[in-house]
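Hi Y.,

Following your request, here is the sequence exactly as I used it, all 186 residues.
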Amino acid sequence: MKIYVKNMACESCKIVVKDALEELGISTVKVDLGEIETKEDVSDADKKKLSGKINKAGLELLEKKQGVLIEKIRKVMIDYVYKSDAKPHSKFSVLLSKELNLSYTYLANFFSEVEATTIEQFIIALKIERVKELIIFGEDTFSEIAYKLNYSSAAHLSTQFKKATGLTPSHFKALKEKRRLTIQNI
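Below is the corresponding structure, written out as tokens. Let me know if you'd prefer a different format.
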């Protein structure tokens, strides 16, 4: 049986869900972002208990097909941004259509209607958050980050970052360094 979960966006979310399933004695085949596959059917009572446990972490079970499709789209977007260095550089529209076996136009219109934002804007927001993480980790240059996240150049990354945050990536990095020094001096 497949159960869909809204707002599952990271490995920590998967751990929360796995722990809740284990507590309830529900056997799983796999727990992936936005999706749980169980070995056997889960009763409505157990779904309600599971829902109560995962709601504390900001997650919720999805019942409607509309919500399920939105979560599938989100999962593909998150994988595209967070695992982009492991995938060939390709257009997201082609990847999404291929993954969900639906036309990109349909998916984009559907997403915009339900979420009140476009797929492109959502991906930009995800990318900016990913850029912030990579800058904070400090292991990659801006050019390497740009390449990892499928930007055409470091300049393109910088322009989009400044438009979204009001800061250049360099300024953001400098602020992080100042905070680190301040904390070390306490």
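Strands lie at 2-6, 28-32, 35-38, 60-62.

Thanks again,
Q.
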